[in-house]
Amino acid sequence: MIEKLLPTVHHPEETLRRSVVKTISYRVAILILDFTAIYLFTGKIKIAIGFMIVSNVYTTLGYFFHERIWDRIKWGKITGQKVGK
C-alpha cells in the first residue's frame, strides 16, 4: 500500500503549465494552514491575514523556482520508460 503513496518513479518531464498548477494548489493549502496557525496563536484576524499574504508571496516564488530547477536536474530520474500502469 505504501508503494502507491510513494512511487519510485516521479515525473521524468514536467511542463511549465503543470509546475504552475502544482504551485497554485500547494499555495492555496499553505494559505489556509498559515492563516489558521497564526490566528490560533494570536487570535487576531488582521495579523493572520498580513502574515499569510507576506509569507506566501516570497515562498510561492521560492517553491516555483525550486521545482523548475529540480526539474532540470537529471539525477534520480528514470527516462525512457513508460510511467504508470
Secondary-structure blueprint:
Elements: H1 2-5, H2 16-42, H3 45-72
Structure description:
This protein is mainly alpha-helical. It has a domain at 44-74. 69% of the residues lie in helices and 0% in strands. Helix 2 runs antiparallel to helix 3 (45-72).
Order of helices and strands: HHH
What's the gyration radius in Å? 17 Å
State mean pLDDT (0 to 100 scale).
Answer: 80
- Number of H/I helices: 3
| Shape type | elongated
Q: Unreliable stretches, pLDDT < 50, 5 or more residues?
A: none
Helix content: 55-70%
Structural class of the helix and strand makeup? mainly alpha
Number of strands: 0
Classify the beta-strand content into a percent band: under 5%
- C-alpha end-to-end distance: 15 Å
Major β-sheet, in short?
Answer: none
Tell me briefly what this model is:
The chain has 85 residues and is mainly alpha-helical.
Task: Offer a few descriptive terms.
single chain; 85 residues; mainly alpha; 0% strand; elongated
